[in-house]
User: Fold this.
Amino acid sequence: MIEVVQTIQTSIEIVGKLLALSKKIGDADFKMLIADLSNELGDAKLEAANLKNELASLRQENTDLKQRLERRENDRPIYADGVYNFEGEDGQFCTSCFDTGQRKIRVRRLANGFEVFGKWECPSCNATFG
Assistant:
């Protein structure tokens, strides 16, 4: 990317020299071509600056995505008794909510008499576990 900007900058300097030379020559067509070339190089320099900004933005997005992926890989659940447990966190978590949307929803114990359906219920998706 730096080489492109340097090439465009060098080209603009050459156009400046050609413009100075065109004043000595006095040919209107030549001056018009130099002016057109100068405009095109200005547009190219502007586009190179836009591309440089876009590249910086994409690099930042790439870094952010890598960090999210690393956090996700380090935050792997431990499956036990039908629910997930996470290291360093209290409680059990819904496997369905985590598997489908990466959401950590704590499950709650089912009331006595409902234990036939399982030990825990997710308050978000109403799934029962255990």
